[in-house]
Automatic annotation (TrEMBL):
SMART domains: HTH_XRE (SM00530). Keywords: DNA-binding, Transcription, Transcription regulation. InterPro entries: Cro/C1-type_HTH, IrrE_HExxH, Lambda_DNA-bd_dom_sf, ScfR_C, TransReg_Diox_bact_type. GO terms for molecular function: DNA binding; DNA-binding transcription factor activity. Belongs to the short-chain fatty acyl-CoA assimilation regulator (ScfR) family. It holds the Pfam family HTH_3. Residues 9-63 form the HTH cro/C1-type domain. One of its GO terms (cellular component) is cytosol. It comes from Maritalea myrionectae. This is HTH-type transcriptional regulator RamB.
Length: 541
């Protein structure tokens, strides 16, 4: 969905007193073309957009409205929710609301997020009540104790000639059962509060996402800190595992050790590393790759040496809870680790010289495909920017587990994406880079490149865990990458027609549709769903 850039241009032009013809002449285009731009019927970018911004005395960021584009995508996703479908609101209403009353649009967005969180909590409570034997037992105990208290109270009330010893016995029973009831009730409350705390991850994660996106995933203080920390390393041109081990032991007395198997899990997932703060040992499972060991050592070093900078950034007012601040420190620690391993200027230069060949950069820096892809997304320094990429990661079920959006390109914040994305096709071609040009329903064209890979199995019996990582850029930048070579970048006819999700996609005849589309303001119609399901089996043809 296009952000209303044209409306901003028209309003700012009028406020400065320019006529359409005079303004068009001053920026070197025809009045008819300017009219199409202001009507939001033509995309505008590059040198022309910079010229318009300069002539209108407005910043490029304010004119392009990247935050508004993200808000537009969020509103379209909100309007596609079944709870709001009867209102028949769609992309046109979202665009009008953002253009005319952005504060109301943000209020709607925040309200919907609170609603989604409440639904998640209610579902968690419902599931616990239906399936948790502990809660069922606690409720049974409470009913039994309430019955006992009631029976004793009725005897004391209805039998006035009880002997003193009997009265004392029943009073004792009421007191005892009441205390037991209170204890059970407190246990039940603790269980519910614990469940609520574990299921309130939506808001902290989304708050962190919003912070990262609004900062364009670029944090100057962490880049400066990384440069200062790198100066303390040895003479080599890149940070390597051995040097990180020396720095950890020299500065903090931390040693690194490898073991055949790390006992137990702390996260519910198989562990490849664990830091024992008490004994000052960073443990790695024997199967952990060099890229994993190097990055985790760099992250630990970053969290220790960059503690002040990380805490300062985590105090941002956009992070409203302790949970979101903890997530931020962890995520920003990873950012700082990446900035240490991939120094900004050197990495950008080598990326450009290699035409953004991720496999080459992975070999050059002893890093994984995903680590390099992460770093490419952060090359947003003003005046020294790399290609603007979007980033997505998915598991074989199709669930999106990590994302960084590309402004102007709609995709979901969670759940599943379009089954035609190369992100999912990559699972059929493990360890190969799969690429394609795609067209969105709004006319946007993009280059998508993805690679799937497996975490190394630690023993014969272990099954590998597959992951797919995708980078996306506007097709205008595709010829600057090695992945655009040999592709028909100027021919939209060869593009794969895709969308954000089935529910948000307006392509009525798509053979890959898995869910009925949201009708929005366009009215009701029938959508045919295919009989087969998209198959994410590994290595299939």
């Amino acid at each position: 969905m296009r952000a209303p850039i044209g409306l901003k241009i028209r309003n700012q032009r009028k406020s400065l007193g320019y006529s359409q013809s005079n303004f068009a002449k001053s920026i070197g285009i025809s009045p008819s073309y300017l009219n199409l731009i202001e009507a939001n019927k033509r995309d505008v970018g590059g040198t022309l957009l910079q010229t318009i911004a300069l002539k209108l005395d407005i910043s490029l960021d304010e004119l392009t409205g990247e935050n508004e584009q993200r808000l537009l995508s969020a509103l379209e996703e909100i309007f596609s929710d079944p709870a709001l479908e009867s209102l028949k609101m769609g992309s046109a209403e979202a665009r009008d609301l953002v253009a005319t009353n952005p504060r109301a649009a943000r209020a709607l967005h925040q309200t919907y997020r609170a609603y989604a969180e409440a639904v998640a909590e209610a579902e968690a409570y419902s599931n616990r009540l239906k399936s948790d034997p502990l809660l069922a037992d606690l409720l049974h105990q409470m009913l039994s104790q309430i019955t006992a208290v009631r029976s004793s109270a009725e005897i004391l009330t209805d039998v006035p000639d009880l002997e003193l010893a009997e009265q004392q016995r029943f009073h004792g029973m009421v007191s005892r059962e009441s205390r037991a009831l209170s204890d059970v009730a407190q246990t039940l409350i603790d269980q519910f509060e614990g469940e609520a705390g574990r299921n309130r991850s939506l808001t902290p994660a989304r708050e962190l996402d919003d912070l990262i996106v609004e900062e364009k995933n670029y944090f100057p203080t962490l880049e400066e800190k990384a440069a200062a920390l790198r100066a303390g390393f040895a003479r080599r041109g890149s940070v390597v595992e051995a040097e990180l081990a020396v720095q950890l032991e020299t500065e903090f007395g931390i040693t690194t050790k490898r073991v055949a198997e790390l006992g137990g899990t702390e996260t519910g997932f198989p562990m490849q590393y664990r830091f024992d703060a008490k004994d000052k040992v960073l443990w790695f499972q024997g199967s952990a790759t060099l890229a994993t060991r190097q990055f985790q050592m760099a992250r630990l070093y970053s969290e220790l040496r960059g503690r002040d900078e990380l805490i300062a950034l985590a105090k941002d007012e956009r992070l409203s809870s302790a949970a979101s601040r903890r997530l931020a420190i962890r995520a920003l620690g990873s950012y700082l680790a990446g900035a240490i391993i991939f120094p900004y200027e050197d990495f950008l230069r080598e990326a450009e010289q290699s035409s953004y060949d991720i496999d080459y950069l992975s070999q050059r820096y002893a890093a994984s495909f995903e680590q390099v892809a992460h770093r490419l997304v952060t090359l947003r320094r003003p005046g020294a920017e790399g290609i603007p990429f979007g980033f997505l990661r998915a598991d074989p079920s199709g669930r999106l587990s990590k994302h960084f959006p590309l402004p102007g390109m709609a995709w979901p914040n969670a759940g599943h994406g379009c089954p035609l994305w190369t992100l999912f096709d990559a699972f059929r071609h493990p360890n190969d880079v799969v690429r394609q040009t795609v067209s969105y329903p709004d006319g946007g064209r993009y280059l998508m490149l993805a690679k799937s890979f497996a975490k190394r199995a630690d023993r014969f019996q272990s099954r590998p865990l597959y992951t797919s990582v995708m980078l996306v850029c506007d097709v205008l930048y595709a010829d600057q990458t090695v992945y655009g070579k040999g592709m028909s970048l100027d021919n939209p006819q060869v593009d794969v027609p895709v969308g954000p999700t089935c529910r948000m996609c307006i392509r009525r005849s798509c053979e890959s549709r898995q869910e009925e589309m949201f009708t929005g303001a366009g009215g009701e119609h029938t959508v045919r769903l295919p009989l087969t399901e998209i198959n994410f089996d590994i290595g299939g043809s």
